[in-house]
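Thread: "does anyone have the structure for this chain?"

Original post by V.I.:
We have the sequence but no experimental structure in hand. Need at least a predicted one for the grant figures.
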Amino acid sequence: MTRIVQIVPHIGVGTGVAGVAANLERELAALGVEVERFTYIQARRGKRDSHPRTRLGRRIAGGWKQVWFSTVGTRRARAFLAERPDAVAICHNNVLAGDIYVNHGVLLASMRARGRSWWRTYRNPVHDFIYLRDRIRYRGRTHRAVVALSEAEADALEATYGPLGSRVVVIPNGVDQERFRPPTAEERAAARADLQLGTEERVAVFVGHEFSRKGLSFAIQGLRYAPTVLLLIIGGNDDIITEAYAEATAAGVGERVLFLGPRFSLAPFLAASDFFVLPSAYEANALVVLEALASGLPVVTTRTGFAPEVIVDGENGYLVDRDAREVGERLDELAQLSDTELAAWHARARASVEPYTWPAIARRYLDLAREVEAERSVA
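Reply from O.Q.:
Generated one for you, tokens below.
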């Protein structure tokens, strides 16, 4: 096999789909594979989009991008692949093209997990479009194989769409274990000093741009049951940060939360923290959970996505319900540990993700790509 093409809206270091694609690109290239990319910008042929200032404008623009990349982008991606008949294509999101499709989330499963009614789900025309698009994707033979990021996601696909037209292979995300690692004492002290934190505070960190789905409210309200814990909050935008700070103030914990906004590099903030919290309603496979564990942080999170496959209660974290008291009590338990006891948790957290290196995950994708290439040769 000479080349792999990744079809993805955006690609770059960080969390989410863009980060997964970037890590695969790097590691596949290290395995000697020629890797190309077809992104939204390439589909737009270099034309830049406008950037609406209002929340409504951003939501409309985001929906338009999904519809455009799913339709016009599909046609242009197919033309791109037609010029590379020897390539195996791995598609992440939107486009209806490619040999392998990586499922980064099931919309209806997400809506159900958040308690959204049928009406609230389907009154949004973009949701209707996504459901119909993905029904075509999964029930038909657009792709030769579908990658699910966890066993739970494989089950969610079949529960949502019924019998699937493509075989499903479970390959979890990986984590960059050189970039995300337990900090040295000097690195930890420097990271804390940058945030004006002392050496004694117990610090939890939350990372997520969608505060509602990611469960920030449960972490904030949970501070009422963890009176010594400080909470770092990474992500969001001006509007939802303002709303979340108002909630923290009303709950009487405003002095124990620090909103840092979106950050490109998470490692320094993980280094400054003692544990990680993510009471999310739905995840396919939260990359940031693996990054936190690799950084040596015990994780308090919900039973969604890959978390139940990697978190062992009382060993490297806790699996909780979306309940403020339960979240807070687990944070408080961790906060009461001595430094020696917490160090043992840090070691177990790191050890729990050692099998999930990006080189190992990339080899699994390469094996699947070779299987697909062999299937195509006899079709």
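V.I.: this helps a lot. Residues 43 and 73 are 6 Å apart (CA to CA).
O.Q.: and The longest helix spans residues 55-82.
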